[in-house]
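Quick one: structure tokens for this chain, please?
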Amino acid sequence: MALPIENYALISDCHTAALVGNDGSIDWLCLPRYDSPSTFGALLGDESHGRWKIAPTDSTARSHRAYVGNTFVLTTVWTTSTGVVEVTDFMPHGDRRADLVRRVTGISGSVDMTVDLRIRFGYATAMPWVRQIPTPTVAGDPDGVASAAHVDLVAVAGPDALVVRGAELHPKGHAHVREYTVAEGETVDTVMTWYPSHRPTPLPQDVDRSLADTLDWWENWGSNSTDDGPYHGAVMRSLLVLRALTHEDTGGIVAAATTSLPEAFGGQRNWDYRYVWLRDASLTLTVLLDHGFHTEAADWRGWLLRAIAGDPNDVQIMYGLAGERWLPEQELPSLPGYNGAAPVRIGNGAVDQYQADVIGEVMVALHRSRVRTGEASQDAWALQRALLSVVEQNLDRPDSGIWEIRGRDQFFTHSRVMVWAALDRGVRGVEQFGLRGPVDTWRKLRDQVRDEIEEKGFNAELGCYTQVFGGTAVDASLLQLAQVGYCEADDPRMLGTVAQIEKELLHEGLLMRYRTETGVDGLPAGEYPFLACSFWLVEQYARSGRLEDGRRLMDALLLLRNDVGLLSEEYDITGRRQAGNTPQALSHLALVRAADALTTAPSVLSREAAGLPAENVDELAGEHSGGLVTSSLL
């Protein structure tokens, strides 16, 4: 049985990632990319679906783990009755290989260790052919000769192959195992390398060099951060998570490292998040820009241009890591699901949905990138103009909304606001940067959409914006109205919306996305509070002057991180456990935004941060459109 979700830590090489349990078992790993079929799938089943465990033989051993500084090198210190050992787990960065290293070092006394390796390629559909061969010559070895005493374990099935070097393993049923003793000062390295099965076995890894290089790379990356606020530790770890979820080569940013971790335990809300949602990636880009990571912005812009090249009407809400368009949703019979939560899905049916908010998020991010970097990329502007043509052509079309409902399409107020935001950023591109475009048309449409929102998306009797036009229910996504500058955070209509959100959606202090029992999403009712939404509420509190409320909620949310600072998608308050896919980019980027809001409040945002030209900030802050004060927090 898989561990509680919060018991897993992430290690990553910025191409893929492994989830390491606090019991020493790696229960999830897809090679060589995040969206590749799993090699270890015990997270969605049990050990028979693939895992790699290294832990003391003593079942009473106690462990404590932590990342080394601002890196994804994980150390776990095990204390037993006979001694103490440290296990260092990491995926080497920068060597253009798919390696996973597990180093066991004796700290004191001696400790008996057990290794249990079960390789199951293809989402546990392929039992590999395993053989042992002599270890080849190490690259750079002055003697040029491999030790005849060392052998490699090579596992092959179809297109996939692994070689395992170090602690020699022996077959036991469908596993490969070993028991050995580590004394003080001794080190035992085991290295696993994936490679295409039609290619030669890669040469051995220099573990010391790889460890040093990996530590240096992560620390150097983190040193670019501009954050030094009171939530620095949480913000830094969240920024690192966002970088780990960004593919090194393509620039694509996955929404999470996993698939099918349930939003409701034992239920059917199990989705594959190992793809690039334009929405999540755009929001991630904005956060990285705000903290000084401009290279990632350029990489993502390049990814975006490649992914949606061609007819703008063919734009999708999500893509594969390299911009793949074909992501059909399938159910896997080979994996029984996390603690039986079926079905396990790969691909995602949302790829075929129309979600009107997505272009708005992309436009906001590209505008913010232009403001932050000062780059007026003509390619990016050409893309923005093409996207605005899609907005115009679909102006009166209902959609599936930010939460990807599987019920009927409707006019979601949040989606309509993001249509407004898309047109608004087009106007700003012309006004602020002198770019060319039909600005009069965009202004007219922007005002038209605002009038429509105020008429149909605001319920005067309740005093709040509503989830859908003409509705009475609220939705946590309405908290983003102030974030994108549609209104001020302290506007009476926004405050009324917040009050109704607190009344309807707060559950024991945390925020639900919406009421699933209404049937709006076309799925069986039931899920847990959504962590990103609660962080949005912190941001709203901070921006509207409720600083103490914001700080209290922020402190409560930070306690929901696991022992190494990771957050999944949702939180089960009753069960006191994380739920949904992990680590979740949206949760971590919302954490950073909330921390930024609390850190800067109640001071006025700088002109640069507001995304406005210096000479027009005061003027625009007092400009009225449709009876509401407009501003920009993005």
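The chain is about 30% helix and 20% strand.
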